[in-house]
Amino acid sequence: MAAMATTTLTSSLISNPKSSFSSFHGKPISTRTTSIKSTTQQNTTTISMSLNSPAYDLEAFKFAPTKESIVSREMTRRYMTDMITYADTDVVIVGAGSAGLSCAYELSKDPSISIAIIEQSVSPGGGAWLGGQLFSAMVVREPAHLFLNEIGVDYDEQEDYVVVKHAALFTSTIMSKLLAKPNVKLFNAVAAEDLIVKEGRVAGVVTNWALVSMNHDTQSCMDPNVMEAKIVVSSCGHDGPFGATGVKRLKSIGMIDSVPGMKALDMNTAEDAIVRFTREVVPGMIVTGMEVAEIDGAPRMGPTFGAMMISGQKAAHLALKALGKNNAIDGTCEAVREEPELVLASVDAEETVDA
Predict the structure, then answer these.
(1) Which residues of the chain have pLDDT under 70?
(2) Alpha carbon 167 to chain centroid distance?
(3) Nearest CA among 97, 122, 232, 114 for reference residue 175
(4) What are residue 231's DSSP bridge partners?
(5) pLDDT tens digits for 311-354?
(6) What is the pLDDT, as a whole number, of residue 207?
(7) How far apart are CA 101 and CA 107, in angstroms?
(8) Which residues are annotated as part of the binding site for substrate?
(9) What structural domains and CATH numbers belong to the chain?
(10) Cβ 121 vs Cβ 114: under 8 Å
(11) 193 vs 123, 230, 238, 254, CA distance in Å?
(12) What span, in angstroms and rounded, lies between the C-alpha atoms of 163 and 218?
């Protein structure tokens, strides 16, 4: 009999929307720099830094010996084990932008839920590595800053918004926390080419290597793979080569009537609308992030990111509700519920694991 674990979900969705904190809030960033001193002498400036010494001799450093085949086997064995484990999973999130990552982070709090993230790019994060027009800063309107508090990202607080000094701080922080979870797997450089639909319900995704998907017109037929899922969260972003692919496919197979596309920019209207219209659009498929604007004709928001975080968080709780788990939609986050322990396929198992 599977071991039983008690799970209590906590979420910034139910946090106090206003609290007292300093200008820069969040978990302090650790550093090896113990002191920095700047001095000016005779019109020259020098900076002295005191660093902790590495735990090894940099002048005589030597790696432990290995065989090339060992490296190959480790990568292959672990990846194939992940493919077996997540061939049939609880939630598949398509798109690892800010909304998709926020959704996965929130879902990962329940260790009984298995979560696969499909990202067509080699580098996940979508547009959240930079702010607007390739600038560095990320602007987040309150009260979405509470999500930054939760994951521990520092920011500069203004009157009714906050500024993260570089958008990459958000993306790298949430990824480092998320990918450390044992119930989450990111499959990057993998494209979702189609949906699995059974009896009017989305039941998974059709996958292929992204480079293969981009070259179907130049090669002979290259058949895909599949991932079955109880819930698919589509976080494919606004229209583009790989954008809004989830809702566009729903339209092409007649499960929704239209995809009008997003309207012209209006930040105040857009961010509220994205969160409000995040929902399960057809049985088995939840839409989050900028893909919501495509299906509802909502305005684009431009270089503000709070709606992406909160839309992703809401999508997670909609998925939890659909799975019969505690969730903020029903107000059951604080309730105690016994859940079966998630058991992953072991990379060290000698026996063949049945898919």
Answers:
(1) 1-50, 240-242, 336-355
(2) 14
(3) 97
(4) 91
(5) 999 999 999 999 999 999 999 887 765 555 555 555 454 444 44
(6) 96
(7) 10
(8) 99, 119-120, 127, 192, 223, 238, 290, 300-302
(9) 110-323 (3.50.50.60)
(10) no
(11) 18, 18, 17, 17
(12) 45
How high is the pLDDT of residue 126?
93
Q: Which two tokens stand for residue 162?
A: 């906050």
- Please give the single-letter amino acid code of residue 231: I
Q: Is the dihedral of CA 97, 222, 252, 285 positive or negative?
A: negative
Any bridge partners for residue 93, and if so which?
117, 233
Write out the two tokens for 238: 């606004």
Of 161, 282, 298, give the one whose Cα is nearest residue 290: 298
Copy the structure tokens of residue 182.
């044992």
Cβ atoms of residues 101 and 178 within 8 Å: yes
Strand partners, 40: 45
The pLDDT of residue 50 is 67
In this structure, what DSSP letter does residue 139 have?
E
The answer to whether 228 and 204 have CB atoms below 8 angstroms apart is yes
pLDDT at 7: 45
231 is written with which tokens? 């819930």
pLDDT for 13 equals: 56
Calculate Rg over the CA atoms of the chain.
22
Looking at residue 217, its pLDDT comes to 84
pLDDT at 10: 52
Binding-site residues sit at 99, 119-120, 127, 192, 223, 238, 290, 300-302
Q: Convert the pLDDT of each residue in 253-307 to its tens digit.
A: 999 999 999 999 999 999 999 999 999 999 999 999 999 999 999 999 999 999 9
Q: What distance in Å separates the CA atoms of residue 315 and residue 239, rounded to the nearest whole number?
A: 20
Cis peptide before 241 (omega within 30 of 0): no
Pairing of strands 161-164, 138-141: antiparallel
This prediction's pTM: 0.82
Which helix (H) or strand (E) is 168 found in, with range? helix 167-178
Strands 225-234 and 88-94: parallel
